[in-house]
């Protein structure tokens, strides 16, 4: 018997809620705020990224990114520099302490998702990734039709 859409919604909701709860608990123990691990990883891999690009890549508002960067800057993990050609644009860089924190954040994310996918075969992971890509495409296509 195939699962109904309602069953799929319920399963996705439960997985999302559990991931959120577990990651929030672990982040609190490690002095992370929600969203910081991903943000730090993006900055680490894109040194000098603009705040606008961070907003687009994380799918959150510019105001939210500014607030997150303010916290990271207050903790001396990042610093912002005006762009050399357009002073209105701020580029974001990691401090040495921020690089260490970013490594720690990446290890946290990887371990959390390794735990999530424990027991999955390579084929199941490929299938799951394919289905996620298909879902993302469906969502993008539905946005263009609205």
Molecular structure report:
The structure is a single chain. The chain is mainly alpha-helical and 146 residues long. The protein has a domain at 26-120: Winged helix-like DNA-binding domain superfamily/Winged helix DNA-binding domain (Arc Repressor Mutant, subunit A, Orthogonal Bundle). Helices cover 69% and strands 8% of the residues. It has helices at residues 5-29, 36-45, 51-58, 62-74, 96-116, 122-145; strands at residues 49-50, 78-82, 90-94. Strands 1-3-2 form a three-stranded antiparallel beta sheet. Strand 2 (78-82) and strand 3 form a beta hairpin. Helix 2 crosses helix 5 (96-116). The longest helix has 25 residues, at 5-29. 12% of the residues are buried. Pfam families: MarR (PF01047). This is MarR family transcriptional regulator. GO terms for molecular function: DNA binding; DNA-binding transcription factor activity. Keywords: DNA-binding, Transcription, Transcription regulation.
- Report the average pLDDT across residues: 89
Q: Which stretches are poorly predicted, pLDDT < 50 over at least 5 residues?
A: none
Helix/strand order, N-terminal first: HHEHHEEHH
The assigned structural class equals: mainly alpha
**Largest sheet geometry:** 3 strands, antiparallel
Rough outline: globular
Strand content: 5-15%
According to CATH, the homologous superfamily of one domain is Winged helix-like DNA-binding domain superfamily/Winged helix DNA-binding domain
Portion in helices: 55-70%
Distance between the termini: 33 Å
User: Gyration radius, to the nearest Å?
Assistant: 18 Å
CATH architecture of one domain: Orthogonal Bundle
Output the CATH class name of one domain.
Mainly Alpha
* Multimerization status: single chain
How many helices does DSSP assign? 6
Strands, total number: 3
CATH topology of one domain: Arc Repressor Mutant, subunit A
Strand order of the largest sheet: 1-3-2
Protein name: MarR family transcriptional regulator
Pfam families: MarR
Organism: Variimorphobacter saccharofermentans
Keywords: DNA-binding, Transcription, Transcription regulation
């Amino acid at each position: 018997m195939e699962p109904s859409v309602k069953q799929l919604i319920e399963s996705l909701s439960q997985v999302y809620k559990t991931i959120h709860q577990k990651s929030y608990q672990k982040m609190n123990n490690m002095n992370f705020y929600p969203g910081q691990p991903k943000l730090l990883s993006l900055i680490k891999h894109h040194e000098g990224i603009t705040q606008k690009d961070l907003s687009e890549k994380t799918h959150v508002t510019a105001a939210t990114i500014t607030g997150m960067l303010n916290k990271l800057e207050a903790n001396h993990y990042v610093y912002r520099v005006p762009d050399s050609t357009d002073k209105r644009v701020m580029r974001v860089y990691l401090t040495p302490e921020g690089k260490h924190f970013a490594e720690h954040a990446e290890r946290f994310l990887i371990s959390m998702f390794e735990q999530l996918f424990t027991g999955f075969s390579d084929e199941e992971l490929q299938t799951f990734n394919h289905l996620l890509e298909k879902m993302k495409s469906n969502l993008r296509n539905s946005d263009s039709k609205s």
